[in-house]
Write a structure and sequence with these properties.
- The chain is an alpha+beta fold.
- The chain folds into two domains: 40-117, Nuclear Transport Factor 2, Chain: A; 126-218, Nuclear Transport Factor 2, Chain: A.
- The protein contains three helices and twelve strands; from the N terminus they run βαβαββββαββββββ.
- The chain has helices spanning 13-22, 49-64, 131-142, and strands at residues 3-4, 40-45, 68-75, 83-91, 94-106, 109-117, 144-158, 161-172, 178-184, 190-195, 202-207, 213-218.
- The strands form two sheets. Strands 1, 2, 3, 4, 5, 6, 7, 8, 9 and 10 form a ten-stranded mixed β-sheet that branches.
- Strand 9 and strand 10 (190-195) form a beta hairpin.
- The longest helix has 16 residues, at 49-64.
- The chain starts with a strand and ends in a 6-residue tail after the last strand.
- The model is unreliable at 1-31, 198-203 and 217-224 (pLDDT under 50).
Amino acid sequence: MTQSNHPITRSSNHQIAALCVALAGCGMLPGRAEAQMRPAAVAATRGNSDELRAWDQQIDQMLRARDLRVRETQKDALVAGRQHERLDQYHHGVRIFGGDVTRQFAADGTVSAFGLLHTGLDIDVTPRLSVEAARQAVAAAASGEFFGADAELVVLPLPDGYHLAYYGQAIASAGLEIVNVFVDAATGALLRQYGDYMHEGVIGTGTGTYGDTKKVSVRSPPSR
């Protein structure tokens, strides 16, 4: 059985985050951002039981503090008796875009933990923009119509730091493409946007959030 309590219909968190971080060519306007520290990569298995135990304890502690929240739990389709738990990271009740962890459980405990956790954030999460104004800003940025649920307030990591942003989707008037849009939660200025549909089989490179080189693979749109 799958349980999901996320408010916005969207692509997988990892796919969106990878594109958002890796593509240096996406549109972005300068704005005030909080200083950014490199997030901690979580990669622990039973091959290193001490490391796995330490991460397991930290994840449990963050769950109790509501800094991590369960997005989805799902049975492993390949290994009987195992279950995957996907967790989103929050800062003062606001989801950190791309901050998440997946744990795999068996009957005798945690098997592995993988993901990315952000630490040391010091950013105010009070938006100046209303949700309705954010919807309008998202639609305007895509030159189209807002699509789906209300705009979601998120903390968005970008190369220049953390931004308080609204995330939403819009259907662009040109090409009927679904566009993922982030606008500044104070001004409505465009911070980042990218489309869901791209060309199949293309593998390129881009500069990641922390100056490293990333491989980016993209896929084709469905035939019209």
